[in-house]
Amino acid sequence: MFLNYTEPHNIYSYGLTDEPKPVESLQKNVQMPMSFYLENQLKKPVSQRIYMESDSGKHFNNQDEAVWKTYRGFYRSSVENFDRELGKVLNALKKYNLSKNTIIFVTSDHGDMDTHHRLVFKGPFGYEQVTRVPLVIHVPRRFGGKNPLRENAFTVNVDILPTILDFAGLPSDIGDGFSLKPLLLGKEQKHLRSHVIGEYYNKQKWVHPLRIVRNDKYKYIDHLTGRDELYNLEIDPNEIHNLIDDTSITHIRKQLAGILDEWIIEAQSDPFYTLTATDITGKPIKPSLP
Question: In the CATH scheme, what is the code of domain 9-154+193-274?
Answer without folding.
Answer: 3.40.720.10
